[in-house]
Predict the structure.
Amino acid sequence: MRLLLVEDNERLLALIRAALAKAGFEADGLTTAAEAEEAVRSVDYAALVLDLGLPDQDGLTLLKTLRGAGFALPILILTARGGLDERVRGLDAGADDYLVKPFAQEELLARIRVLLRRPGGLLGDMMELGEVSLNTTTREVSIHGRPQLLSPRETAVLEMLLRRAGRVVPKKLVEDHLFGLAADFGSNAVEVYVHRLRKRLGEAQAGVQIHTIRGVGYLIARG
Ligand code: CA
């Protein structure tokens, strides 16, 4: 699961990214509204954390642009503007939640978790197929009820496949989710994670298999 974090205070950006990473979320960090808009248009993010005071454009304007273009991803705004009017304007413009600076990192994480499991959102808490279960909140994976130690990226690939069980997941989509805007990944990176997952599922007799659909992507199914 990949998040986008837009904040022009680079020190704060780094602090939040570190806190997110520690909590198991990978996040792309950007500092301008223009970069953020381009990123949302090219990567399928699970949520956006958006600072309102950006150097090139007001975050509220970006928020309206994204909603106007049909992007439905959960958006949490960060604002130093704590006035009631400002908060109402943010929510009216299509934000799902807001946090007033300064805030505690624990609160930001808690609110992101709520956004990711809101009704009608993309995520439920537990996903199960065969003997595999994945808790999308705690990121715990178990097979036959036994906890498995998977890397965050292996867990992310498994989640994508489970979310679309029985359907083909394009490899490109998996790459977007895993790496977002990062350019520094090998062309066979996704294959490596899928290979490790297959091995784990096989060894633990999970009752599910990951099929490769040549030239397209992957599909997980019971088997
Ligand atoms: Ca700012």
Remarks:
- Residues 169 and 218 are 5 Å apart (CA to CA).
- The first strand starts at residue 2 and ends at 6.
- The helical segments are 10-22, 33-42, 59-68, 84-92, 105-116, 152-163, 171-179, 189-203.
- The chain is about 40% helix and 25% strand.
